[in-house]
Amino acid sequence: xxxxxxxxxxxxxxxxxxxxxxxxxxxxxxxxxxxxxxxxxxxxxxxxxxxxxxxxxxxxxxxxxxxxxxxxxxxxxxxxxxxxxxxxxxxxxxxxxxxxxxxxxxxxxxxxxxxxxxxxxxxxxxxxxxxxxxxxxxxxxxxxxxxxxxxxxxxxxxxxxxxxxxxxxxxxxxxxxxxxxxxxxxxxxxxxxxxxxxxxxxxxxxxxxxxxxxxxx
Amino acid sequence: xxxxxxxxxxxxxxxxxxxxxxxxxxxxxxxxxxxxxxxxxxxxxxxxxxxxxxxxxxxxxxxxxxxxxxxxxxxxxxxxxxxxxxxxxxxxxxxxxxxxxxxxxxxxxxxxxxxxxxxxxxxxxxxxxxxxxxxxxxxxxxxxxxxxxxxxxxxxxxxxxxxxxxxxxxxxxxxxxxxxxxxxxxxxxxxxxxxxxxxxxxxxxxxxxxxxxxxxxxxxxxxxxxxxxxxxxxxxxxxxxxxxxxxxxxxxxxxxxxxxxxxxxxxxxxxxxxxxxxxxxxxxxxxxxxxxxxxxxxxxxxxxxxxxxxxxxxxxxxxxxxxxxxxxxxxxxxxxxxxxxxxxxxxxxxxxxxxxxxxxxxxxxxxxxxxxxxxxxxxxxxxxxxxxxxxxxxxxxxxxxxxxxxxxxxxxxxxxxxxxxxxxxxxxxxxxxxxxxxxxxxxxxxxxxxxxxxxxxxxxxxxxxxxxxxxxxxxxxxxxxxxxxxxxxxxxxxxxxxxxxxxxxxxxxxxxxxxxxxxxxxxxxxxxxxxxxxxxxxxxxxxxxxxxxxxxxxxxxxxxxxxxxxxxxxxxxxxxxx
Lengths: 217, 578
Hints:
With 217 residues, chain A is mostly helical. Chain A has two domains: 3-179, no CATH class; 186-217, no CATH class. Chain A has helices at residues 3-13, 15-24, 44-55, 61-74, 89-99, 104-122, 131-141, 152-170, 173-179, 194-200, 206-211; strands at residues 30-31, 37-38. Chain A has a two-stranded antiparallel ribbon with strand order 1-2. In chain A, β1 (30-31) and β2 form a beta hairpin. The relative contact order of chain A is 0.08. By secondary structure, chain B is α/β, with parallel strands linked by helices. Chain B is 21% helix and 17% strand. Chain B has helices spanning 22-33, 128-132, 142-156, 181-193, 234-244, 294-303, 391-397, 411-421, 465-484, 555-574; strands spanning 6-8, 13-18, 38-41, 92-93, 198-199, 248-251, 254-261, 267-274, 280-290, 328-335, 355-357, 372-378, 425-432, 441-449, 455-460, 488-491, 538-540. In chain B, the strands form three sheets. In chain B, strands 1, 2, 3, 6, 7, 8, 9 and 17 form an eight-stranded mixed β-sheet that branches. Chain B is globular, with a radius of gyration of 24 Å. The model of chain B has no long low-confidence stretch (mean pLDDT 97). Chains A and B meet through α1, α2, α3, α5 and α8 of A and α4, α7 and α8 of B.
């Protein structure tokens, strides 16, 4: 029996082998019927997981409002680039806590801790405080080594919030441009630019220059 | 008709190969090109890096910015499916010991993830017992494998530099890429400390070697799979060309249960469950080649029990599963203050380090046997999940552009810290040789099966003082290198309490030794041709036959031995010996 006939036989007796073959040969953009579209390779199991995660909601409106304010305090707009919320950092945080449930309690509990602190100090939840009051509160928990011992839970929360905000920002399109990462494109690596070598007082030795890959253009 | 029946696939083959990674892919390639009819069974789906693309994607194209998931442990952009745990496919441990088993069930297996570090074993690596009295010698020597290393260098492509080192033989090299900036500083420090820092040896095409595969375009993303096949993976370099011969049928999602035998004690083929239709199948072949990974192949043999083979197939020695060993690993990283605020340029380079350190010391002057090599990383890479984490630890030690040590903070000044410190961090990892021990093994767990009803593996593995002392030496060396570079250690400090950061066995994903090679059938599973002593038409071509690990990554040697065994199979089939 030739290979084609064999595969046909297999298709009758074991539908899956060829069915999967066809699936894997589809272009990289995978779709689910009513689900999200991805530009990266996703297995059927991954698509099912993504769809489930994207259909869930963890934070309520008040929590999202607070996250938005905090993220823009941490990464504000400046002369170089936009703010965390402009880079959709709150949306990233909303997704990542569903993807990584270990962040859920520290985030939810931390937000609540912050509201309770603000209620005691300013008789208002964090989001309802004035910008001046918000900064006054943040100043107490944003510097781990200076913070009062009784505020350490707030410090832990703010460290997590700072990490997630910065990570979400600098992995966004706005953030990568700000950072000045200029790779992820086809190129020819021909070594460290000469002005940089000069700046640090280093050079390639003759053997390295002789044996390393050279390019025509 | 009963609800349950076993179907026979309608075609018989010359050779049935189980597993499509480095060993299985190479066997399929060599056998198919010799006109032999091959069926290649793979426990996972088909995969082609040109079609299943994650290369050249931006972090925001993953909703988790490339973070690890339970379905892709090395992150959303990594080519390798699976990881340390697979849903419905458990493994267990004995006596509270540890072994982490990485499995990637997909065409190409774990060649979809690995770092393309392609080191030949040296002459000493085949004869370690003769040198230090530990473990065992291989029944073959460097001179037996060298011609196959040569062929593989040319077939697959590898860059590096000619160094004439006694135990790190040169390959037939393509030119290496120039070092990056932090790698120049590492080289400088190495010179001062008499630690060799030489061009890395990676199976990446810095020049094209044929029309089917493109040259590297320096995106630093080999772990994502290469759309132009500019690096080595089994699917793109071996299985696809093997398929083009018309002599290979691939059956994906075929989870092999056992090797079947006849009354003469010969292997007749394998039984498998098709994961898609959940039906049971058998496929017949004159020769069976196992390449399912060292542990999975051992599992298959141990599960292939019969009245003739009560201890499992090819296991009259009782050695199957024993002498399991992985590379040692320890890591450390730091910050190089002179690199803060550095000028931006594209320094992606190839997917991995441009320089590395081969083992350089004499064991006579040390308190541990064998050695390790050092891998380096750092620089201005593409940010992904985890970028910027722990800034409060960095900016408490170092001042930002404004001269202030913030120690956390927020706002425009903090935002600038991320820019300022970007590209100033680096790290290094030691990967060393452990001693193969009979007391480190995998066996069948008597009480546990996976979701296909196949009995699972139970591991028993303990590091000894040898490995712990090696890790201690690694950490001391790393700290010395970092200090000599003018850097400061920021992570990876370790002490006796945590075995000097020695990683758990299995974590380096260099599992070998479970079906070891030898001349004595009482002490080994396969002979020097990777042929089972007990079953002459059964071969094992993954890392299982390794007698010892060497301080090298195993893939190049798996490939060479698989090619060598495949040529032997061709010969034996021609002579009608099997």
